Amino acid sequence: MVRSKNDRIANAVVFVILFGCGLVAVFPLLYVLSVSLTPFSEVLKNGGFILVPRSITFDAYRKLLMESNIPSAFGVTVLVTVIGTILNIVITALMAYPLSRKQLPGRNLFLMMVVFTLLFSGGIIPTYLVVKSLGLLDSIWAMILPNLVWSFNVLIMKSFYESLPEELFESARIDGAKEFRILLQIVAPLSVPVTLTVGLFYMVGHWNEFFQAIMYVTDRTLFPLQVVVREILIQTQSPLENVDNMTPSETLQMASVIMASLPIIIVYPFLQKHFTKGMLLGSVKG
Amino acid sequence: MKRMKAVSVMLTVIMISCGVLAGCSSGNSSDKDANNAPASGNAGSGASAASTVKLDIIETGNNLPSPDKDFIKKEIDKAIHSDLNLTVYASGDDYKNQLNVRLASGNLPDLFQVPDRASLKQFVEQGLLLDLTPYMDKLQPVKDFIGDESMKKTTMDGKAYAIPKAPNIPYNTYWIRKDWLDKLGLQPPATTDEFLNVVKAFAEQDPDGNGKKDTTGLTGSKLSTFAPIFGAFGVADPNTFYVKDGKLVNSLYDPAMKDALGFINKIIATGGVDPEIMANSGLQHQEKAIKGQAGIIWIDWPNLSKDQFTEQIKKVNPNADWMQLAPPKGPGGQYDGPFDAGGTSGMYAIPKALENNKEKLQKVFDLLNYVSGKDGSTLVQFGIQGTHYNLEGEKVVPTELMGKEAGFTWLYQFTGRPEMSYLQTKFAPQSKYIEFANSQPRIQILNGFLSNPDGYNPADAARFIEEEFVNFIYGKSPLDGYDAFLKKLESTMNFKTYMDASIKQLEELGYGK
């Protein structure tokens, strides 16, 4: 590789720009983290702006863990995320695999039906009616089943399966394998990247579960994390109704944000390498 | 947020089309609902459902503990043999979504908060609400508790469709930094002219003594920042109705409004007013006050004098000393802003479908009567006797646990509370502020009684009025244009229809005759 002076300058410029972009992304996170660790009086003294905490306290976190609904909400969210994601992946794969086989009769019709739901949806009230008549209201299933399969993810998985060489399937069939065995023992091990990618999509979706919970769940013990965090974040503005309310301090609010996003931030880097690979395979050959 | 907005727009559209449908179907489905409710709830309570009735209640609010820690729920359940399932929504938008979906799908709560008078009108027109007029004798304790006058607030065409909370009292006043006044050798302003001078001095003469010109004289949220200034000219906030010299007027048409705007323009021209007042939302103005950036603020006493906030203020500046300021005197008198005679801090309605479920309906009445009666009301105000408060004679003395545990009990105050005694008990240290705010003269406005006529969009009109007012007070358009503004308001916003309808409604209630 030939490296001229110009190249190096260009590189430097690119680095500086990227570094700037990175900084912009890190900045709000750092701010949230710092405020969550600083005593609120310190925050106020600095006019509400702190990047590097000078004194550190874990009071806010302690308070959230001891006195709020966050721990139980955490449990609900983990439960929904784990059960939900597993079901999502299984069902999505079971749908995507047949659709990827060219010999499936009526394949185009089924594909059309999948794509159709990408563009049109039933609307809130009809969906609510369906959820209600299935008896799902006020259960964690209301947060899992209505969005069990995302059409988009089906298409990603389908494209990935289509990219597997046909010869594999043929040889498996010659060895006497039926479709289920092919899916489980040939396709599944080969499609780890796409499974992880789609799994991550689903997982983040479940972790951020908010709207369905607000709509279908009225039992407080079943509220997921995001709903509870939002409750802490919204400062109630009308003192007429609730003079009694303690407005949560900014420190407390920021601590709740950290607690809600930290787990997913931790998971992300580990899945990232598969993530890009899976996405690319899906999109390029789709 | 964007998505939420789109959702609510979509909802409204769907609501309109489904409203009719829901109206028809809710009657049939109500029996089914009654059977469904225990089944979909937890199985444990379903078993004992023979004697207890499950009541679904939704409202806005927050900090409700989980049912096992909710001692108010337990006490009420014990008292009226019910199984309350209260759900609260932190944001008004979420609440409206939830309410609309449930109303449209026939999965009705048994008691719910009506967001505002416009929604009340809409629900009434869709036939969703139970007319409470024939049941009023069953609700006698509620009536005694909130007062006969109060029922006017939720009456439409002579029928009562909801229960308003007991009347509240005004909280807002100007607050001023006493230590800043002392530092600059100024007296608390008593007239509008003195007020203007103080605002100017606070901004220019470095009252916090840090050598930087980083303070503003006056802050607040939106146009209400100037409520007592409007009051000093004898007008109430923009687009409010009140009786002046025996006649009904709208503040926009009050001749004194122009003078008020002219004077506010003068205050702003001193440069002493927080330039962000129109952008201050939520409690941003309060934050500025706590951080020591502003010298005068228009705010309610809880947000500046509750222990939590005084502590914060002291931590920022141990010498900070906020005091309440009586409204400055002006050419039109001395009024500390408006107070809405028709205003209520909440109203609760019962769905029409409950008509067919006599047992449940009676239970809702029991609940409302209970929280209005002596025992129940004390419970939802203060908590449990012996735990959260002790009685010394008739006097309620809070224990330490009240502050810790009983902060959420207001969520169960479906019919409100006796405001003054409640606040005096719960906020003993703030007692004098409560008293002060309550005793200031106010212009009694009547907007709470109004329902908007068809063809009048209150949100659009309010936005237009606010924009034009900002132009006037910031000197962007000259006051000569005020009459043209009124003309434009009438021609583009259907304001005439609104005026006529409003005057008619108020005259029917006996105002301005």
What descriptors fit this protein?
heterodimer, A: 286 residues, MetI-like fold, 0% strand, globular, B: 513 residues, alpha/beta, D-Maltodextrin-Binding Protein, domain 2, 2 domains, five-stranded mixed beta sheet, four-stranded mixed beta sheet, 21 helices, 46% helix
Range of strand content of chain B: 5-15%
How large is the count of helical segments of chain A? Answer: 13
Average pLDDT reading of chain B: 84
Low-confidence stretches of chain A: 236-241, 282-286
Number of strands of chain A: 0
Distance between the termini of chain A: 34 Å
Protein name (chain A): ABC transporter permease subunit
Membrane topology (chain A): Multi-pass membrane protein
InterPro entries (chain A): MetI-like (IPR000515), MetI-like_sf (IPR035906)
Pfam family, one (chain A): BPD_transp_1
Description:
The complex is a heterodimer of chains A (286) and B (513). In chain A, 71% of the residues lie in helices and 0% in strands. Chain A is mainly α and 286 residues long. Chain A is built from 13 helices and no strands. Chain A has helices spanning 5-37, 40-45, 59-67, 70-100, 107-119, 124-133, 151-163, 166-174, 179-190, 192-207, 211-216, 225-233, 250-285. Chain A folds into two domains: 5-57, no CATH class; 62-285, MetI-like fold (Orthogonal Bundle), CATH 1.10.3720. By secondary structure, chain B is of the alpha/beta class. Chain B has two domains: 2-168 and 345-368, Periplasmic binding protein-like II (D-Maltodextrin-Binding Protein, domain 2); 172-335 and 461-508, D-Maltodextrin-Binding Protein, domain 2, CATH 3.40.190.10. Chain B is built from 21 helices and 17 strands. Chain B has helices spanning 2-40, 43-47, 71-80, 92-105, 117-125, 140-146, 178-184, 192-204, 227-232, 256-269, 284-290, 302-305, 307-316, 358-372, 374-382, 400-405, 419-426, 431-439, 458-473, 482-493, 495-508; strands spanning 53-60, 82-89, 111-114, 155-156, 159-160, 163-164, 172-177, 216-219, 241-244, 247-250, 294-300, 322-325, 338-340, 347-349, 389-392, 395-398, 443-445. In chain B, α1 crosses α4, α6 runs parallel beside α14 (358-372) and α14 packs across α15 (374-382). At the A-B interface, α2, α6 and α11 of A face α1, β2, α4 and α13 of B. Chain B: Keywords: Cell membrane, Lipoprotein, Membrane, Palmitate, Signal. Chain B: Pfam families: SBP_bac_1. Chain B: This is Extracellular solute-binding protein. Chain B: InterPro entries: Bact_solute-bd_prot1, SBP. Chain B: Residues 1-22 form the signal peptide. Chain A: Its main location: membrane.
